[in-house]
Amino acid sequence: MERIKTDILIIGAGAAGLFAALHLPRELDVVVVDKGKLGGGGSSPWAQGGVAAALGPDDSPDLHAADTLRVAAGHGDVSAVTVLCSEAPECVMELAELGCDFARNEDGSLHLAREGGQSVARSVHSDDATGAAIMSTLRDKARDRVTRIEGSCLQLCVVGGRCTGGWVLTEDGLVEVAARSTVLATGGIGALFTSTTNPVGATGDGQVLAWEAGAGLADIEFVQFHPTALALGDSHQRLLLTEALRGAGAHVVDSEGRRFLFEHHSDGELAPRDVVARAIASRHSWLDCRHIDPALLEEEFPNVLAGVRTYGLDLIKDLVPVQPAAHYFMGGIQTDLDGRSSIPRLYAIGECSNTGVHGANRLASNSLAEALVFGRRAAKAIAGQRMGPTKGLAAAPPLQEVDIDVDAGWVRLREVCSGALGIQRDPKVMASVAGALEDLAILPLTGSTRAAELRAGAILVRLMARVALLRTESRGGHHRTDYPSPDPDWAGVRLRVSRS
Ligand code: SIN
Questions:
Q1: Residue 440 CA, distance from chain mean position
Q2: Is residue 354 classed as helix, strand or coil in its secondary structure?
Q3: Which of 365, 367, 368 to mutate to test the pocket of ligand 1 (most atoms within 8 A of CB)?
Q4: Domains in the chain, ordered, with CATH?
Q5: Which one of 62, 123, 423, 460 has the fewest beta carbons within 10 angstroms of its own beta carbon?
Q6: Enzyme catalytic residues
C-alpha cells in the first residue's frame, strides 16, 4: 500500500476545499482528495445563481443576516449568520482579485441578481454559470499549491482521540495518507434522492466518514428541495432552472395559467424555497418566462436556455414544466465557526458541515458564500494551531469481496430515501427506513467506490430518518404530514447525533 505523509489532508475539491487550500500557508504540504476531475466532480461547478454578499448600495451585512435568519425558519444560528454575512463581501472581492469573471454593470461595479428570500439583489454571479467560473479560478490558482489524489476516502483514522488522516481508495488501490490536520469538504447528499439538481458524487460520504470516526452530526432532518428543476427526462439528475430567473420576473403558473404562489406566500415567486417547493409539488406547474425581454434571457441565462433547448423547449417561447428536486443539505458535521468538528484535528467546511448558518432552510446563494467564508476561516484556524508531529495511522481497514448488485442497491436506496425524506414526510414511511436499508448499511468496505458510497448513503439515510422522526413538528425543509405546523417548543432546538 502506498503511504503518504502531509501537513494537511483536504477531502473534497470543490469551492470550500480549494478556497481553504489557497488560504493555508505556502510552506504547508497540502494533499487534496478529489472524487472527479480537479474540482469538477462536485456540486460547486454546477451552481448557477451566485454568491450572496451584501455589496449593493441598498444592502448591508445586517440586512443579509436578517434575510438569512427569516428564511431559516426560526432555526438559524445568529453567530454563524453574522460571520457569514459580514465576511462574504471580502471573500467575493478576493475571488474577483484572483481573476474570477463576475458579471459587471456598465460602470464596472459587480452586477447583482435577486433570488428568493432576498429583500434586495444580492447574488454576485457570472451569468448563470457562477460555480463554473469560481471553480475555474480556484482550480487554476490551486494547481501548483496542492498534491491531488484522484480517489475516494474510505475511512478516517483517529489515534489518541485525534484525527490523523485516512485511507483513500484510488484506481491503483488503497493509499494511506497521514496528516497533521484533516479537512472534510465533501459536499452534499442530493444523489441519494430519485430527483436531484446535484451531481452523482453528492452521496453524503464525508458526513458518514465523520460519523464513523465519532464526530457529531446536527440538523440532519433538514433537506432543501429546489422548487424549479426541469420536469423532463429520465435521468435522476434534473436541470436546474435558476431562481434568478424568477428574480428576473419569471412566473410560476398552474395548468390554467394562474400564478398560484401568492396563495401560499405574499412574496409569490420569491418566497422562501421551502414554501415555493411545497406549493409547486402540490400540482403540475410551469415556469413562464415568455413576457421577459428575450435579449435579457439570452444575455443573462445562456446556459439555462441552451440546457432547456436540448429537451426541445425554448424558455423564450414555451412554458416549461418544473418540479422540485433535492438540492441542498442544511444538516451535516457539526462544527464551530472555524470548522472544528468534535474530533481534534478534524475540520469540516462547506455543505458537508453544519454551523447552523442555514437553520432549517437555506437562503439563495448562501451556499457558495458559506463555502468561501468557512473554508477561509478553517484555513486560518489550522494555520494558527500548533502543528505537532504527523502521527501514524492505525491498521488499514480490510477490504472484502461482496456479491451485490450495486446498481440495484442504488435504485432501492434512492426510492427509500425519497419516499421517506422528501418534501412531505410520513411517520410510518420514515419508521420503515431502518429495516429497508439495513443490509446496505452493514455492507463491508470493498474495493469499489460506488459500493462504498452506497453503504455510506444507507447509513446516512437511516440516521436522517431516525432524527426526522424525533422532530415532531414541521419547519423549513422538514415537513411532516402528521405534524404539519411549526411548534414553538422546537424553535432553535438542534438535534445532534454521534456514535461516541
Ligand atoms: C439557483 O441558482 O437557483 C440555485 C442557487 C442556490 O442554490 O443558492
A1: 24
A2: strand
A3: 365
A4: 2-221+330-383 (3.50.50.60), 227-324 (3.90.700.10), 406-489 (1.20.58.100)
A5: 62
A6: 273
DSSP lists the bridge partners of residue 155 as 167
Averaged pLDDT, 95-105 = 96
Gap from CA of 244 to ligand 1 centroid (Å): 8
330 in Cβ contact with 272 (< 8 Å): no
User: What's the pTM?
Assistant: 0.96
Place of cell 400564478: 259
**Length of the chain in residues, anyone?**
500
Pull the grid cell for residue 27. Answer: 510552506
Residue for grid cell 464526530: 215
Cα 311 to the center of its chain, rounded Å: 26
- What is the whole-number distance in angstroms between the Cα of residue 49 and the centre of ligand 1? 5
Closest among 116, 108, 104, 130 to 44, alpha carbons compared: 130
Using the CB atoms, write b or e for 187-203: b if 16+ within 10 Å: bbbbbbbbbbbbbbbbb
Question: Quick one: average pLDDT of 123-145?
Answer: 94
Output the ligand 1 site: residues, CB below 6 A.
Answer: 47-49, 242-244, 328, 364-365, 367
Beta pairing class for 2-11 and 30-34: parallel
Element of type H or E holding 20: helix 15-22
Q: How confident is the model at residue 393 (pLDDT cuts 50, 70, 90)?
A: confident
Instruction: Report the nearest-CA residue for atom 2 of ligand 1.
Output: 49
With 80 as the cut, is the pLDDT of residue 388 above it?
no
Model confidence at 128, in pLDDT bands (50, 70, 90)? confident
Ranked by mean pLDDT, the top range of 128-132, 171-175, 284-288 is 284-288
The alpha carbon dihedral of 256, 260, 263, 264 has a sign of positive
User: In this model, does residue 37 exceed pLDDT 70?
Assistant: no
Read off the pLDDT of residues 246-265 as tens digits, 9 standing for 90 and up.
999 999 999 999 999 999 99
Pocket test for ligand 1, best of 225, 243, 366, 370 (most atoms within 8 A of CB): 243
User: Which of 418, 451, 452 lies closest to 436 in space, CA to CA?
Assistant: 418
Q: Which atom of ligand 1 is nearest to the CA of 130?
A: 2
Between the CA of 318 and the centroid of ligand 1 the distance, in Å, is 22
Closest atom of ligand 1 to CA, residue 368:
8
Q: Could you give the C-alpha distances from 215 to 306, 349, 406, in angstroms and in order?
A: 43, 14, 28
Q: What is the pLDDT of residues 305-361, one digit of tens each?
A: 999 999 999 999 999 999 999 999 999 999 999 999 999 999 999 999 999 999 999
Ligand 1 mutation pick, 48, 126, 304, max ligand atoms within 8 A of CB: 48
